[in-house]
């Protein structure tokens, strides 16, 4: 799985962008989006996903269940 | 042309650029009442007083640090810093409205390059624009690259402009040396508590070192970092202003302790502001019904904290993209589209000529006050009362009652006239005829005042004011505020002495909440 940003909730404050250890977050059409191919849910980097921890709006950076769970390299 | 500009014309002779300068000035009358969504300010005490010269030099042109300067000098905020690293219960990051004027609100974000262009455009149009601040809409130090890039660009292109920033302090200790390196000589830290128990009721979380902390722990980290940052700044000779939001029942009494803590760490000025809280803002406090303080509660707390430390009473709680004098907002004139299309000609010389003119105006005002103060010497009375003043700025009673968007409030005693705040009001006069409802709003806003000084007032509101026990005073039209107020007060004391009137104590007044509509 990866995280995704709920566009209708995003205030476009950009706080998440520099926190992402995978540089997976970028601005698109006025809000921020996460590249699911790059997102590791911060596993191996931090205890909690950084985008969700810094986001000022609750339930905006959420797990995208349409992707399989990220598997850290052995 | 009004009285102010005429005076200036006489004072400065006629250099080539005068017409142009006067035009700019005419379009840009004073603090206080004109303008749209912005909220203006006054700072510390009036003149240099007992301030050391090096500090006076730093604050005299800074509208947020000198009460007196805010009548003459303008500031602008550029919204380059959208991200924040803490959450406050009085803030909702989803809110933006062009008619709303309060911290954290902004209409468009700028890149550092756009911001630098905007600063040049505004400084060329408004010659008394002397200060550039970065105040958000998030926290400038949660966006260090954007903030410092903006400072770097402005230092290069407009080196006469003072730089300042306003932060929650969480990231401050990490950036103090960079701040000093850019010659930022004014930093504002918002400190609402020094006790984490109190802080836990104001801050749901902070994001620090890659982790979200909540509750007591979050507030403990925040207060430690704020006070450490404050100490580091004052050690380096950077002036610090402390902003505190007064939240009745949560930190109102505690702010006296905050005042002591920041004073002992070298803060220069303390600005206690009323909580802005209304359900439509969607903030935690707005939704849970947390009220803001009344005018009397706010003033009582400010008075308690006033000792060796300057209290700022002229704060208008402006937006993170405000432009102009405190109390007005010209940000709508300088949208990104308009700036990018503007031919900017940054003329340092005409800016300096204009600012020299402002200095003459200030000197005249201080002299008038001095003369009147001397005439008060020898008067003895315990009477202390408040008066409201309708002004467009320049320290004059020069606004029509019905056109005032806010009133300045002055406290009068035998010690003289002291500026203690301002009150926002709805416009009374709309489309040429007064509206009863808004007159009631004004009376509620200045209900603690004995008199209201205006340049002009109609018969109807006059009668209603008298009925409410507030004396309308229009014989000082276009005269200096302090001089007029002292003259009136002397007369008031004489009448009390002779038994012609009886001195009574006035009730409380209301601090207006909600959006200020920019349509005049």
Salient structural properties:
heterodimer, A: 74 residues, alpha+beta, Alpha-Beta Plaits, two-stranded antiparallel sheet, 2 helices, B: 520 residues, alpha/beta, TIM Barrel, Nucleotidyltransferase, domain 5, 2 domains, 8-stranded mixed β-sheet, 5-stranded mixed β-sheet, 18 strands, 36% helix, globular
Describe the structure concisely.
Chain A is α+β, with helices and mostly antiparallel strands. Chain A has one domain (2-64): Alpha-Beta Plaits. Chain A is built from two helices and four strands.
CATH superfamily of the largest domain in chain B: Aldolase class I
| Rounded radius of gyration of chain B (Å) | 22 Å
Helix count from the secondary structure assignment of chain B: 16
What value does the average pLDDT of chain B take?
A: 79
Enumerate the strands of the largest sheet of chain B in spatial order, edge to edge or round the barrel: 10-9-8-5-4-3-1-11
Quaternary organization: heterodimer
Work out the count of structural domains of chain B: 2
Major beta sheet summary of chain B: 8 strands, mixed
How far apart, in Å, are the first and last alpha carbons of chain B?
Answer: 19 Å
CATH class of chain A: Alpha Beta
Instruction: Please outline the major beta sheet of chain A.
Output: 2 strands, antiparallel
Count of helical stretches of chain A: 2
| % residues in beta strands of chain B | 15-25%
Name the overall outline of chain A. globular
**Strand tally of chain A, please?**
4
User: What would you say the CATH architecture of chain A is?
Assistant: 2-Layer Sandwich
Helix-strand string of chain A:
EHEEHE
**For this structure, what is the CATH class of the largest domain in chain B?**
Alpha Beta
The neighbouring-strand order within the major sheet of chain A is 1-4
Number of domains of chain A: 1
| Structural class category of chain B | alpha/beta
């Amino acid at each position: 799985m990866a995280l995704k940003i709920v566009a209708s909730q995003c205030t476009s404050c950009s706080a998440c962008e520099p926190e992402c250890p995978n540089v997976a977050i970028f601005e698109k059409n006025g809000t921020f989006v996460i590249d699911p191919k790059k997102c590791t849910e911060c596993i191996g980097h931090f205890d909690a996903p950084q985008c969700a921890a810094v986001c000022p709006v609750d339930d905006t950076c959420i797990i995208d269940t349409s992707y399989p769970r990220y598997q850290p390299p052995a | 042309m009004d009285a102010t500009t005429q005076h200036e014309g006489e004072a400065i002779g006629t250099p080539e650029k005068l017409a142009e300068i006067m035009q700019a000035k005419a379009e840009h009358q004073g603090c206080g009442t004109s303008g749209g969504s912005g909220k203006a300010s006054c700072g510390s005490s009036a003149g240099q007083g007992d301030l050391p010269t090096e500090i006076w030099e730093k604050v005299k042109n800074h509208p947020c640090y000198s009460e007196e300067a805010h009548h003459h000098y303008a500031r602008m905020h550029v919204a380059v810093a959208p991200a924040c690293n803490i959450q406050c219960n009085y803030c909702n990051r989803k809110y933006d409205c062009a008619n709303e004027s309060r911290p954290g609100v902004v209409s468009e974000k700028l890149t550092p390059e756009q911001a630098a262009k905007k600063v040049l455009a505004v400084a060329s149009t408004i010659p008394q624009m002397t200060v550039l601040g970065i105040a958000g809409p998030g926290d400038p130090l949660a966006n260090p690259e954007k903030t410092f890039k903006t400072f770097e660009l402005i230092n290069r292109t407009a080196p006469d402009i003072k730089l300042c920033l306003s932060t929650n302090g969480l990231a401050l200790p990490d950036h103090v040396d960079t701040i000093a390196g850019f010659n930022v000589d004014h930093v504002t830290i918002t400190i609402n508590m020094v006790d984490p128990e109190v802080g836990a009721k104001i801050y749901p979380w902070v994001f620090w070192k890659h982790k979200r902390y909540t509750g007591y722990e979050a507030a403990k980290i925040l207060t430690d970092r704020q006070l450490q940052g404050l100490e580091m700044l004052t050690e380096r000779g950077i002036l610090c202003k402390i902003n505190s939001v007064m939240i009745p029942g949560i930190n109102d009494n505690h702010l006296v302790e905050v005042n002591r803590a920041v004073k002992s760490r070298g803060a220069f000025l303390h600005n206690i502001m009323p909580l802005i809280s209304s359900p439509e803002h969607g903030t935690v406090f707005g939704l849970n019904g947390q009220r803001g303080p009344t005018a009397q509660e706010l003033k009582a707390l400010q008075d308690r904290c006033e000792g060796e430390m300057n209290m700022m009473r002229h704060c208008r709680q402006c937006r993170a993209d405000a432009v102009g004098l405190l109390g007005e907002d010209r940000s709508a004139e300088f949208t990104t589209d308009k700036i990018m299309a503007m031919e900017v000609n940054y003329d340092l010389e005409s800016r300096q000529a204009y600012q020299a003119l402002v200095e003459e105006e200030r000197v005249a005002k201080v002299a008038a006050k001095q003369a009147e103060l001397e005439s008060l010497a020898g008067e003895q009375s315990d009477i202390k009362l408040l008066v409201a003043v309708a002004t467009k700025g320049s320290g004059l009673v020069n606004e029509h009652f019905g056109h005032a968007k806010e009133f300045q409030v002055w406290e009068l005693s035998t010690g003289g006239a002291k500026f203690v705040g301002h009150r926002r009001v709805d416009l009374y006069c709309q489309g040429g005829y007064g509206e009863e409802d808004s007159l009631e709003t004004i009376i509620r806003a200045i209900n603690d005042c004995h008199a209201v000084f205006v340049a002009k007032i109609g018969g109807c509101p006059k009668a209603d004011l008298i009925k409410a026990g507030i004396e309308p005073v229009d014989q000082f039209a276009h005269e200096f505020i302090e001089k007029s107020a002292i003259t009136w007060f002397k007369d008031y004391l004489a009448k009390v002495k002779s038994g012609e009137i009886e001195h009574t104590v006035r009730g409380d007044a209301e601090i207006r909440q909600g959006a200020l509509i920019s349509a005049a």
